[in-house]
Amino acid sequence: MAVGFAGMKSSGGDFYINGRVTPFVILSCMTAAMGGVIFGYDIGISGGVTSMEPFLSKFFPKVRDRMRAGDSGVSNYCKFDSQLLTSFTSSLYVAGLVASFFASTVTRAFGRKPSILMGGAAFLAGAALGGAALNIYMLIIGRLLLGVGVGFANQSVPLYLSEMPPPRYRGAINNGFQFSIGIGALSANLINYGTEKIPAGYGWRISLAMAAVPAFLLTLGAFFLPETPNSLIQQEGNQHEALKMLQKVRGTEDVQAEFDDLIKANEVAKTVNHPFRNIIRRRYRPQLVMAIAIPFFQQVTGINVIAFYAPLLFRTIGLGESASLMSAVVTGLVGTGSTFMSMVLVDRLGRRTLFMVGGIQMLVSQLAIGAIMAAQLGDYGGLSTGYAYLVLILISVYVAGFGWSWGPLGWLVPSEIFPLEIRSSAQSITVAVSFVFTFAVAQTFLSMLCHFKWGIFLFFGGWVAAMTGFVYLLLPETGNTPIEVMDRVWMEHWFWKSVLVAN
């Protein structure tokens, strides 16, 4: 059910004007969104370096030997099956999972800004260690530090991007987080493509170390970030400062009605001493379900098949090393462009529409990829050039569907539906669930590819069908509704209203 407002009503019934998107808000949100760039860069860089022979020779020689084996007894689908190799990729998400719960406490007690700052600093340290790695232990420790950085950034940045802009622009600005992830992944793919050609074989070091650039920009920018009005109100004695900040970010002094809603939300938040215990109460049941279901579904779309292992997947179907890295660049461009389209359309068409269109698009393309690989790619040899590029086109169609639906909306919707009293804790649950299943997919995908073969695309396609049905039945439209009065969308939904009013 879509809920629209000609103006935004306060909880007292008066309309308030939410102002405009000021240059101050744009600059602040662009700085915070660098947290998405570091996440995207790491996603893109790991898949690229794990397809480079010098990197494999130094850290994973058994994988390199299987890759070189060609047709001599090693299945196309099993060349890269290595638990040590997947541990390199997935160790980041274990660290991120643990860090997200510490980040929740920091974000709630001290504000969004300190959490963003800590994320940037940890990621900067991890990038330095990864680029200088001499052995697998240094490599994994560097990944763990990167995970701490991503855990703090993913917990705080989506909240920041939901609290700063006016409600009618919240979707576009919050989707900037996923757009930044796309920019980071695309940058990583381009760097991988360039460094792979360095004849001395140390290109992978440059790829890993370059993660320090966005991390440095985020860390430096965090020193100058303003706190959100919501966060300032949460901190005792800062109501006057919060009012001034709200007037500044809205570009108008006429913000009293919105400010009153923030004050009332904060008064409710003060009564909650144990937010993790409080979130399981019936009144928060819809938000808790979404905090778990949306990040779970986002990870079982199969996007990590592309995000982490695109170059390896393209090598599986017979493309060379350079062609595989360039194909990853192509899919990165498609993903970034489609996410930008989501930024433009999300507040006009609504969240549900983009979820449905993107879900159908991903499902059809995954079924087609599975069918082609089943019919044309055996255990040995490769696809013909024509079929290989057809798979690349279908993967691009899939990435586009994710880019304007589950990619950005998987971060946007959870960050905008939580009331202030449970917002930080609920966001940490969302991030933790995301990390748990990102880890699970990253750790098991290469083994699943070896065993399921072409059926891996049907496996993820089944999940896409299920999640599309979930959105159609259970997710109300959350666009154009002020965060502090978001509870009304659940009371107007055909299913959730019966849950909320039940004895």
Enumerate how many helices there are, as a single number.
Answer: 26
String of helices and strands? EEHHHHHHHHHHHHHHHHHHHHHHHHHH
What share of residues is helical?
over 70%
Which stretches are poorly predicted, pLDDT < 50 over at least 5 residues? 1-17
Which percent band covers the strand fraction?
Answer: under 5%
Summary of the model, kept short:
74% of the residues lie in helices and 1% in strands.
Describe the structure.
The protein is an all-alpha fold and 503 residues long. The protein contains 26 helices and two strands. It has helices spanning 23-32, 34-49, 53-59, 61-68, 83-110, 112-131, 136-163, 170-174, 176-195, 203-209, 212-222, 229-234, 239-250, 256-270, 275-278, 285-299, 303-307, 310-316, 321-349, 351-376, 385-403, 406-417, 420-452, 455-474, 487-491, 496-501; strands at 8-9, 15-16. A two-stranded antiparallel sheet has the order 1-2. Strand 1 (8-9) and strand 2 form a beta hairpin. Helix 9 packs antiparallel against helix 19 and helix 16 packs antiparallel against helix 22. The chain is globular, with a radius of gyration of 23 Å. 57% of the residues are buried. One of its GO terms (molecular function) is monosaccharide transmembrane transporter activity. Pfam families: Sugar_tr. It is found in: Membrane.
